[in-house]
Amino acid sequence: MAARSYGQYCGITTAVELIGERWAMLIVRDLLVGPRRYTDLKQGLPRIPTNILSTRLKDLQEGGVVRRVPLKNCGLVYELTPYGRALEPIMLAIGRWGFQAMCDPSPGDAVTPDSLTMALRTAFQPEGAADADYELHVGDVALRAQVRSGELTVAQIAPPAPPVGGRMPDGEPDAVLVAGPGIRRLIGGEITPVEAIAQDIVAVVRGEESFLDSFASTFHIASFELQGAAS
C-alpha cells in the first residue's frame, strides 16, 4: 500500500492510493500484456528511475495488485494477481478516454511494444471485426495482430520479445503496415484509409490496400468534441 493517504473513506480514494502514484498505472499497463522481469519493465519505461520502479513494485505487491513468481527459464518475474487483472477493462476505458485528448507526440515521446499493444487492445472493436492478420510497424516497434472470430491476439516482433512474450501466429500476415504516430488520426476517424495513404501516414507494403479499410474498422475509437482541448 502506498504510504500516502488521502484520509477519505471511499473506493475511488483507495484505488488512487493503490495505483495513483506516478508510474504505477504504466507498470500495470505493461503487466497487462504479460509477466515481465524487472529489466523488461525498466526497458519498457526508459524514463523511470530505478529506485521509483522498485518502490512502485513494492507498493503494488503490498496492495495485492502484483506478485513476484518464478517462471521456468526466466527466473523471477512480476505478474498481475487476479485482483490486478481485474483492472483490465478499467485501464482500457481510461485509454479510450485519454485518446480523446491526445495530440501529436512531443520530441522524445516513445512508442513501446507494450504501449502499442495496449493501444490496439484499447481500440479493438470485436463486433463485426473481419478475420485478418496484420503486421504493424511503428518506428522501431513491430507487432503481429491477429483477429480470429472476434478475438484479438497480439505478439511482439521487434524489438525482440521478452522470454515471456506471446506466441507468434503461424504463417504469413495478410498485410504489412508501416505507420507513424499519425496513425492515431486513422484510428480516431479523423481521416480515411485513402487519406492516410495519400498523406504518407500509413503505407501498405505487403498485401492489398483494402486491408487498411478492415484495419480502420477493426481498430477504432469514436471521437467526440472536447471543449478547449487540442485536436
From TrEMBL:
Keywords: DNA-binding, Transcription, Transcription regulation
Ranges of residues in domain HTH hxlR-type: 10-106
InterPro entries, per database record: HTH_HxlR, WH-like_DNA-bd_sf, WH_DNA-bd_sf
Coiled coil regions, renumbered to chain: none
Transcription regulation among keywords: yes
Identification of the protein by name: HxlR family transcriptional regulator
Provenance organism: Microbacterium murale
